[in-house]
Amino acid sequence: MDGMTTSPRETPTQQAALAARYGAAPPPAGPWNATIAGLLDHRSVRGYRPDPLPPGTLETLVAAAQSAATSSNLQTWSVATVEDPAARAVMAEVAGGQKHILECPLFLVFLADVSRNDRLGREEGRPLEGLPYLETFLVAAIDAALAAQNAVVAAESLGLSTVYIGALRNDPVRVAETLGLPPGVMGVFGLCVGTPKPGAEGEVKPRLPQSVVLHRGRYDVAGEPAARAAYDAEMSRFSQRNEMAADSWTQRVIARIGTVKALRGRDRLAAALQALGFPLR
Ligand SMILES: Cc1cc2nc3c(=O)[nH]c(=O)nc-3n(C[C@H](O)[C@H](O)[C@H](O)COP(=O)(O)O)c2cc1C
């Protein structure tokens, strides 16, 4: 066998996977395979063993990430590892003290990166007029997210776990300074990768019923209040099982984006992006 692999978690049956993802109201069973089973088994993990990853894991994850679609093949993203303990500490601090950032053997920062294209334009004597626009930043952020999700799927298929760290956007300028990012590069989120420590394996978190996210032809909110009430009950049970504050999805949404204070500095993101060389015209 080429390279080293870790063994994936045993995958549940289709019925069990759909029940875990949707609780009492799963969609009808359709086509199924091991890839889909792996996707449905995703859960974020917030506690890691320090054990290093098998050699070549980082490069495999980056190959998976680079295999994602990228807008017009512009490839407006990059990824940075954070190995230096002092730099890790800065990342954890920016993210409000999330300890899994310090624990995990691999911490990545996915970067929206238009600087490479900018350099290309300058070297060719053709400064790129399209670069300063909001559209180009959005393209770069989408590219970074698609790449990262491919890395997540690859990691999970190897039996590893992950959690995204959007809280790096609490202070993107400090992240940029710590990683030495040139203008036109912004850390859109971090990603912890590793093996869960005992008890931190996590449970599949239920999602909204499909009826509220899948609109057949026309956007329809008629069933939303009843579906939200059912999902609130599902999420309260999940929270209780996982010893989280036993609040509903509704309460969590309000806590997360109900006030400007709850944005933890991200209300100033437009100014931070401008400081990082994204005019967002
Ligand atoms: C872009 C992004 C940023 C996130 N940031 C954080 C974070 O800073 N800290 C954290 O603990 N989880 C973070 N998460 C994980 C979400 O909370 C998690 O995906 C969500 O609660 C659903 O749970 P699941 O991933 O276990 O299904 C983030 C997820 C995404 C997609």
Automatic annotation (TrEMBL):
Signal peptide: none annotated. Residues 41-190 form the Nitroreductase domain. It comes from the Bacteria. SUPFAM superfamilies: FMN-dependent nitroreductase-like. Pfam families: Nitroreductase (PF00881). Keywords: Flavoprotein, FMN, NADP, Oxidoreductase. Belongs to the flavin oxidoreductase frp family. PANTHER family: OXYGEN-INSENSITIVE NADPH NITROREDUCTASE. This is Nitroreductase family protein. It comes from Paracraurococcus lichenis.
